[in-house]
Amino acid sequence: MPFSIFSILSSWPxxxxxxxxxxxxxxxxxLAAIVAVFFLGLAFPNPHPHFWWxxxxxxxxxxxxxxxxxxIVFAKxxxxxxxxxxxxxxxxx
Length: 93
Description:
Helix content: 55-70%
Radius of gyration: 22 Å
Structural class: mainly alpha
Strand content: under 5%
């Protein structure tokens, strides 16, 4: 279990409910920031595009998001199909 501020107080019901509230508030804040950056990208496009894709509004945001998703999926595939070994890999009976 990853360390959390509330890991010490996890047996207290108040601490658990506060942790859930903090997580949902953080998720709402991050979603609001993403939406704000999206609309700012629409309102203020790149003033000096050098390539055709820079003329598309918020292209960099979508490119970065889908690029990160692609890297995560590839890393999971690579880990499961190449790095992981069978449980009996080191058993040399």
